[in-house]
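To make this tangible, we now present a fold written out as tokens:
***
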Amino acid sequence: MLSRFKPLRIAGLAVVAALLATSAYAFTASVSFSGSNAAGDGSDTVDGYAVTGVTWTLASNPTLMDSVAFTISPAATSVQISVDGGSSWEICTGVGSVTCDLTPDVTVSSITSLQVVAVN
């Protein structure tokens, strides 16, 4: 009795395989590329910034620092600072002449450094 259904089973598997093969072709056939994409690898020099004229501003409570301002050259479009060795970062405003509001105000005794990260 099993041998009577064997040709039907083989035919059924062949139909399923054919359907899968043509449906996979339909998906891959719809993918196209314009040829305008590119990939590559290269290198360039990274120039640094000069930070000058650093001015600290105390909050109304003189144990807290409210902000820091400085001039950065060449002018940068995005500047962030850290005053605690990189544990927290503040986003600064301005291009060339930069002001960084310390929010919340930072305890003066906890300021360990001024780290400036900038890009143009």
